[in-house]
């Protein structure tokens, strides 16, 4: 069993932390270990929560989740990947095959429509090169507005931040969180987990 490096904050919480948790968490769902760990530093917690991108933005919920799932998989954050898959995958219409594909080095052409494959390519380019080449940018510009492209890039960056936190602090997975494909019964947070080894196929 993986051991967290920092114990999550226990209730009672300060009014600002409680207000943020009430706003973020669905009714009846206990606060995530991630949130309670960040709340050990209240200032950081409140600023990270204020920067969240789970509100209604300029991109669809499904596209948002594809970017988040791929980013977390590339960063090996099973914790955050598993929470998003558990809460959102079915709601946004991701099939089990599509969910599993977010963790594969090569994403077969038939798994996602071509437009959504561009999202996978965007995440991989940002993760591997910290930039987007002209050919990929042209393809992205044909599908999304400038406003949407800014949101997609910032979204990928934000979930790198979240992945750094979950991995560096070795936050154990939530009981209901999904597991990376083939990782059942294996601690996949922190050190030693598997991840997509190379970018998805271009084109």
Key phrases:
203 residues; mainly alpha; AhpD-like; 9 helices; 51% helix; disordered C terminus
CATH architecture tag of the largest domain: Up-down Bundle
Question: How many separate structural domains?
Answer: 2
Tell me the fraction of residues in β-strands, as a range: under 5%
The helix/strand class is: mainly alpha
Give the CATH topology of the largest domain: AhpD-like
Low-confidence stretches: 184-194, 197-203
Q: Give the biggest sheet.
A: none
Termini separation comes to 41 Å
User: What is the CATH top level name of the largest domain?
Assistant: Mainly Alpha
Tally of helical segments: 9
Radius of gyration: 17 Å
What average pLDDT do the residues reach? 90
> Fraction of residues in helices?
40-55%
- Corresponding CATH superfamily of the largest domain: AhpD-like
Q: How does the overall form come out from the CA principal axes?
A: globular
